[in-house]
């Protein structure tokens, strides 16, 4: 077995153990980030099984009728929302009356697959449900990174982070763009014209770019070698606010090239501002 596969299995086992502890007092909202889509979805189901299994041992038995129904998505108290298949605000509104009723069994779970792909209207409609929790309802938001989810949803959720998949870095071809971004931050030139086209960044690529900047900023704040090495606290705070604004703009489907140009210019101003 490769070391990468062994690490992935260990991370999933650790996550499963944490979910078993959460099952003792479940949060009304949970964000599962990292890993890969299948893994995140399976862990959401694992939590629901842990809450309903008839013959639990160290974990759910996975064989009783409750576990089998949950695995087959035939459980009456399981709702799966899929933004990539055209989730609409009307669907969320139609679901709200059902959420106000007591679940048929112990707990009701609403799983939002690829939650970062929700449009702003859907995200805000779900936020209202999260802000007005009903006893024994659990919302689970699945995403590659929390930054892609509406920040006010994340702030009201317990966040569980899985290991990143190898493909969770920059999009192919964006390493060079990141070098250009770094050069622009220092010298004020060399990046804008390269991301001036509408298709320079798709939504996924832009979000990964923001994650890379966040990681670089975190390294710099720790004094490690990076674009932001030994950045002053005031500038670091300004950068965090700028990244939050960029993430929010992307969640509202603002053109990615305009968001990236704004972020580059704002970062240059922060980086070169005299204290």
**Which ranges are low-confidence, i.e. pLDDT below 50, for 5 or more consecutive residues?**
1-9
Q: Pairing-aware structural class of the strands and helices?
A: alpha/beta
- Overall 3D form: elongated
Radius of gyration: 21 Å
Proportion of helical residues: 40-55%
Q: What is the element string, with H for helices and E for strands?
A: HEHHEHEHEHEHHHH
The percent range for strand residues is 5-15%
Task: Describe, in plain words, how this protein is organized in 3D.
By secondary structure, the chain is α/β, with parallel strands linked by helices. Mean pLDDT is 83; it is low at 1-9. The chain is built from ten helices and five strands. Helix 1 (3-22) packs parallel to helix 2, helix 8 (203-221) runs antiparallel to helix 9 and helix 9 (233-251) packs antiparallel against helix 10 (256-272). It has a five-stranded parallel sheet, with helices on one face. Helices cover 51% and strands 11% of the residues.
Observed structural traits:
275 residues, 5 strands, alpha/beta, five-stranded parallel beta sheet, disordered N terminus, elongated
How are the SSEs ordered, and which strands pair?
Blueprint: H1 3-22, E1 29-35, H2 37-52, H3 65-71, E2 78-81, H4 89-99, E3 108-112, H5 120-131, E4 137-143, H6 151-154, E5 158-164, H7 174-187, H8 203-221, H9 233-251, H10 256-272
Parallel strand pairs: 1-4, 1-5, 2-3, 3-4
Helix pairs in contact: 1-2, 2-3, 4-5, 7-10, 8-9, 9-10
Short description:
The chain is of the alpha/beta class and 275 residues long. It has helices at residues 3-22, 37-52, 65-71, 89-99, 120-131, 151-154, 174-187, 203-221, 233-251, 256-272; strands at residues 29-35, 78-81, 108-112, 137-143, 158-164.
């Amino acid at each position: 077995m490769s070391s990468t596969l062994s690490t992935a299995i260990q991370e999933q086992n650790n996550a499963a153990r944490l979910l078993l502890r959460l099952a003792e007092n479940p949060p009304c909202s949970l964000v599962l980030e990292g890993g890969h889509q299948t893994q995140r979805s399976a862990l959401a189901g694992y939590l629901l099984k842990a809450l309903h299994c008839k013959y639990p041992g160290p974990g759910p038995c996975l064989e009783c009728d409750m576990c089998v129904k949950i695995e087959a998505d035939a459980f009456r108290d399981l709702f799966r929302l899929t933004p990539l298949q055209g989730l609409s605000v009307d669907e969320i509104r139609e679901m709200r009356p059902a959420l106000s009723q007591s679940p048929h069994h112990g707990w009701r779970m609403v799983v939002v697959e690829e939650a970062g792909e929700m449009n702003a209207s859907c995200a805000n409609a779900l936020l209202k449900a999260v802000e007005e929790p009903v006893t024994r309802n659990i919302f689970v938001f699945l995403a590659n990174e929390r930054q892609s989810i509406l920040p006010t949803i994340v702030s009201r959720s317990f966040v569980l982070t899985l290991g990143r998949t190898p493909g969770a870095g920059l999009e192919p071809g964006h390493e060079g763009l990141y070098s250009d971004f770094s050069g622009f931050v220092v010298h004020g030139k060399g990046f804008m014209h390269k991301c001036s086209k509408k298709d320079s960044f798709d939504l996924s690529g832009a979000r990964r770019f923001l994650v890379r900047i966040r990681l670089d900023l975190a390294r710099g704040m720790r004094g490690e070698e990076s674009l932001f090495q030994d950045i002053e606290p005031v500038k670091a705070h300004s950068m965090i606010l700028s990244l939050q604004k960029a993430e929010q703009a992307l969640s509202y489907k603002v053109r990615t090239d305009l968001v990236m140009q704004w972020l580059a210019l704002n970062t240059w101003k922060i980086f070169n501002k005299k204290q």
